[in-house]
Amino acid sequence: MKILVVGSGGREHTIIRKLKESPKVDKIYAAPGNGGISRDAECVNIGAMDKEGIAKFAKENAIDIVFVAPDDPLADGMVDTLTENGIRAFGPCANAAVIESSKVFSKNLMKKYNIPTAEYEVFDDPTKAMEYIEKKGKYPVVVKADGLALGKGVIIAQNHDEARAALKEIMEDKKFGKSGNNVVVEEFLTGPEVSVLAFTDGKTLKPMVSSKDHKRAYDNDEGLNTGGMGTISPNPYYTDEIAEICRKTIFEPTVAAMNSENRTFKGCLYFGLMITPDGPKVIEYNARFGDPEAQVVLPRLKTDFVDIIEAVIDGRLDEINIEWSEEATACVVMASGGYPLAYKKGIEIKGLDDNGQVDGAVVYHAGTKYENGKFYTNGGRVIGITASGKTLDEALNKAYAAVQRISFENAHYRKDIGRQHRAVAPNS
Ligand code: AMP
Ligand code: GLY
Q1: Using one digit for the tens of pLDDT, what is the confidence trace for 12-67?
Q2: C-beta 283 within 6 A of ligand 1
Q3: 385 lines ligand 1 (CB under 6 A)
Q4: If you take atom 11 of ligand 1, which residue's CA is the nearest one?
């Protein structure tokens, strides 16, 4: 088979390396890919938002499956365009991807179908939003832009002034463009966060192994929110008992709700959960693999990835038995100094072999360029280093040992990935 993966980050590199393990795969293309991806797949110079370009390439090159990995092309209907052109594609159609691209949609869906989530109201007027916040008088309060905002459209306001500033930034200054026409104002929840990705064909849902992201830029969860600075799998807080509650109250009701709305979801559905004192609640949905969640979840997949992808597309997921490795995995992201704000690009990365890899771990390239046998930084998040072990501790120690062998000027990484979890980890 020939498979085309759309996207250019660490998640896409992870997907490609997992696809490479399948005996069914002859050739993998990436559009547009990156330096590290170019060592594992053929990169083609088509943008990840170019629906027509991707469809044309897929037809001309007899691509068997197009895997649409990022949120933007999914929200923009790339899977719809491919399907209309008779091309098999993995990912939800636009009318289902809205579960991620509109927080107003997802919050209203949860309210309508009694899926546990934070209490909220929707506003299109900042004055009314502020009146509501003042009337409640409860801080912190969470203000979210409705649309996609690169994971940065969520502000946790500690007081009245911060809430007003958040509303101004999102709704008046339009920091995230039209994503800020509407806001969700919601109750602040507490408890450990868990990411659960699940395969679904719209009928059957099969959760993958759990994980935990670390979204803040600096140690001890300080600094700005980022796309994700590191992950561990499994998430020690996600017990079998919690998993069963999630299945009954969140996962299956969500698939059914989307069907009831005539928005059948097929692909990878991501549940961002918080285990609150009142039980698990949904913080957000994503319509795709998380990044860097994919970097710790997919390495544990033992079943042929292509078999699962085809079963999802064909609506036969119930026939597949999905197996996972018992080992724990950890991923540490090395980012450019300054990220998520301004940073330099084009800095040489030392310590990688010619395939962009290092001994003792797997290096997933997020923002790299490959030129004349050398790798250079080319983005905010540069590489994610994943290792596995019998325990979480072992995985973390191996990942951090590999990080020590790689260097670039102003490299920044968190030193505390998984640390607070070592205490609760049943297996470490
Ligand atoms: P989101 O983009 O919706 O996942 O939000 C980004 C991050 O903000 C989440 O991972 C949480 O850490 C935090 N967050 C979002 N909503 C809430 C909430 N209602 N209560 C507490 N923290 C939240
Ligand atoms: N790591 C969070 C996300 O992919 O949205």
Answers
A1: 999 999 999 999 999 999 999 999 999 999 999 999 999 999 999 999 999 999 99
A2: yes
A3: no
A4: 283
Distance 178 CA to ligand 1 centre (A): 20
Q: Which of 154, 235, 420 to mutate to test the pocket of ligand 1 (most atoms within 8 A of CB)?
A: 154
**Ligand at shortest distance from the CA of 143:** 1
Is the shortest distance between the CB of 7 and ligand 2 below 6 Å?
Answer: no
- Both 162 and 199 in one domain: the answer is no
C-alpha of residue 232 to centroid of ligand 2, in Å? 13
Instruction: Using the 3D structure, point to which of 148, 170, 187 is the last residue of a domain.
Output: 187
Tell me how far CA of residue 346 lies from CA of 10, 35, 93, 419, in angstroms: 18, 12, 36, 32
Q: For the chain, what's the residue count?
A: 428
With a 6 A CB cut-off, is 71 part of the ligand 1 pocket?
no
What is the atom index within ligand 1 of the atom nearest the CA of 151?
A: 2
Which CATH number is 241's domain given? 3.30.470.20
For the chain, what is the radius of gyration of the CA atoms? 21
Count of helix runs (H) and strand runs (E) in the chain: 14, 24
Whether the CB of 226 sits within 6 Å of ligand 2: no
The domain tally of the chain equals: 4
DSSP letter assigned to residue 86: T
Q: Tell me, what CATH number does 354's domain have?
A: 3.90.600.10
Looking at the structure, do residues 169 and 200 belong to the same domain, yes or no?
A: no
List the beta strands (DSSP E) in 236-341: 267-276, 279-286, 328-336
Residue 346 in any domain: the answer is: yes
Closest CA to 362 of 336, 338, 388, 340: 388
Half-sphere exposure (Cβ direction) of 2: Cα atoms closer than 13 Å: 12
Residue that is last in its domain, among 140, 164, 187: 187
- Domain span holding position 335: 328-421
- Whole-number Å distance, alpha carbon 283 to ligand 1 midpoint, is 6
Distance CA 413, CA 332 (A): 7
Q: What is the model's pLDDT at position 49?
A: 98
**Same domain, yes or no: 305 and 351:** no
- The model's pTM is 0.96
Residue 176 and residue 199 in one domain: no
Interval between CA 86 and ligand 2 midpoint (Å): 30
* Position 326 pLDDT exceeds 60: yes
* Cβ contact 79:96 at 8 Å: no
Q: Which residue has the tokens 């939003």?
A: 129
